[in-house]
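Exercise 7. Given the components listed, write out the predicted structure of the assembled complex. Treat all entries as one system.
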Amino acid sequence: MERNKEMSIVNENIPYHFFRRKAINGAMLALCAVSALIAIGILSLIFFYTINRGASYLSLDFFLQMPKPVGETGGGMANAIVGTVILIGIGSAIGLPIGVMAGIYLAEHGNNKFAVLVRFMTDVLSGVPSIVAGVVAYSLVVIPTKHFSAFAGGVALAILMIPTVTRTTEEMVRLVPQSYREAGLALGIPQWKTTVQIVLRTAFRGIVTGILLAVARVAGETAPLLFTALGNRFWSTSLDQPIASLSVFVYDYAKSPFEDWNNQAWAAALVLIILISLLSLSVRIVTRNRFSSR
Amino acid sequence: MKTLKIALLIIFTLILGGGALQAQLKINGAGATFPYVIYSKWFDVYHTKTNIEFNYQSIGSGGGIKQVIEGTVDFGATDGPMTPEQLNEAKTKQGTDVLHIPTVMGAVVVTYNLAEAGKELKLTSEVLAGIFLGEITKWNDAKIAELNTGMKLPDQQIIVAHRSDGSGTSFIFTDYLTKVSKTWETKVGRGTSVNWPAGLGGKGNEGVSGLVKQTPGAIGYVELAYAVKNSLPYASIKNKAGKFVSPALESVTAAAAGASKNFPEDLRVSITDAEGKDSYPISGFTWLLVYKNMKDKQKGEALVNFLRWAMTEGQSYAKDLLYAPLPKDVIKRCESKIVQIKY
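Answer.
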């Protein structure tokens, strides 16, 4: 009798639980879908709005001409486009090797107190506001050399890249199965060769994704460049001189009282977005080729 | 893959090599935003003439002074002169005096958003100080009404807009209020950024212009060029001689002439509240800051040549860009200063 009663309670409750769970499940799924839509929506909003405002001001002149004096219409941003590429180049040249090697160290040899400290510091560093990186580069490079320079800008960007690259590299290298390393070592391959040729190669795509994230993050940075790379209205590619960059141009032009400059700011923003998209696309293609050809 | 790598390598060498080949003289400067328009015009014209690159970045007057003290630029620019302490600091850090060379002049205008006032609003120094001190709060205040007879002033709140960042424009404006109002002098004083007793802050001239344009009942101060470019109305101000003067290039030049009698030797002069019946009272100079002893001979020579050019041919570009050119006797004083630069 008792057993029957128990059974009946359970039987009555199953449909109820089932209904409630289903409702919650449905509601949560809908919320997730809405959130995903919002995320995509914002991205496409930014993208389409920038295209809408900037595309009509893109012309050949914009890519090939130098900026005109303040307040005069026309001119382009050839120097800023090249400047942005150079700044990213310097930042990567300094930041990527440090970041990748630090990541490898943490993943492969990171079972000590020092590594815990490094990990903690990297996390702190990744939370540092970008303007602080600019101030650091200002006092480390600009004041001692008595020069605003492309190099100082690159140092500021490198500081911002290092934590992202370090942590993603560490995570990606950790994902490589232990058996791969053991297999390498068992065949008599030295440790360093195992790391470089087996572990790194296996984790390659993940590391590249991390690098891309870091590059994309710094490509649009303005704050750390204001007091390091400064800006330049002339053509300059030397590393010890101030250099122009798209992001600083956008900042300057967007707040100016001149209509034509505001439009050029939109065009520059669009070019910046396209540049980053192209960069990530080309790296993806390069990494894919590398895998399919082997 | 390999070809792509090689192509990228070639492109980079070309870019970098190209920069190294054309080893032009590059001179870097930074500072005030107010003269940015004419400076970039000057440097563009001068570049086509001489092939020397003057790279000027408008980071603000305060920033310009700071960089001159740190020696990270070849020259600076400011709308508010350096204080004696700053000059001393620059001397100890850089081992040379810093000279102030006036380049052009400008006016700070009082702009407002009040349909009823049209473009004819008249103000005196007392009323202006009262408004910015937060003592006069309504547009139909008796003190404003008696200056603007025949105008139907509404019973509307006055919303004060001022600069939130350190700025030479603020310096000129507060310098004027300090000269004309005892209360202002004791309560607020002059400076590139002060403790504003009333109102909302906007960043840069564009920020204040935007605030005034969008807020009915607002009043603020911006440079003449910004008011004209944004077609904002601006008030006539009663000057020392008792005449209401509208800001214009002529009335700014008149103010400089009015102040030229007691010009200090170092050219760090304030021309607010100047004598003369046509003087617009909220006018000011903008200066280039140069080192008296230039370490680099080539750069020193180029800078001196440029300054000479700016004092002569350069002045002819001022009017079109809404700056007041320097009066003749000021140019003479400048030239005697430029001669002192050693390189």
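Discussion: The CA atoms of residues 256 and 262 of chain A lie 7 Å apart. The domain at 62-292 of chain A is CATH 1.10.3720.10 (MetI-like fold).
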